[in-house]
Write a structure and sequence with these properties.
By secondary structure, this protein is of the alpha+beta class. The chain is built from 6 helices and 8 strands, in the order βββββαααβββααα.
Amino acid sequence: MLHKTRGIVFKTTDYSESSVVVQIFTEKFGLQSYIINGAKKPKAKISRNMLQPLHLVDMVVYHKANGNVQRIAELKNSPTLQTIPYDVIKSCIAMFLNEVLYKAVKQQTPDENTFDFVFNAIELLDHKTRGLANFHLLFLVQLTRYLGFYPHGTVAADADYFDMKDGVFSNYKPDSLSYLSPPHTKNFYMLLKSNFGNIDEVKLNNDERRYLINKLLEYYAMHIEGFGNIRSHEVLEEVLG
């Protein structure tokens, strides 16, 4: 049976001399793997260039409920990204976000709220001209809302500490070894209260940004089984620095 669905490309892997397997986060079916025969041929109907990380696609797919690898009948980039593939900073941000998403989003069932958030964020990144330096930080903070470990905001505005283990703000130093302390707690709270429309108003220097990204990745690793290490943020930090 054929189904129409939007998708976000996560990862493309060579399968044979001319074919690939691509993992796509779909609106209707969650994360799915698709085999595309002939994708590496010069005149391919669905070419590998269309399957770059975080490219947005419209698809018509065959879907079997218990299938490990599905098939695609039609695919087109929609909307076509205008700046991310050609802007060094944006492409580095996209590379980082892609690595995080690949390790964090694993469900093979529909999750339209998460899908809409990620899809819209990629479109925003493609069109954005200001506030890029903190875009990835805000994305990580907001994504926790959909992954189930968004921070609790009680006494957040005046709190000195953020307990990463329990996801709560506190006026007292947590017993756990994983926490934020001043001034980073306030910076983290500013991110929580921000959105993509006013992210350029959040003022962080390079050291503060590096500290927060490392702590956010630690926070993710604490709450997502098998999350592991993220490497692409080092490249991003060099570009932003």
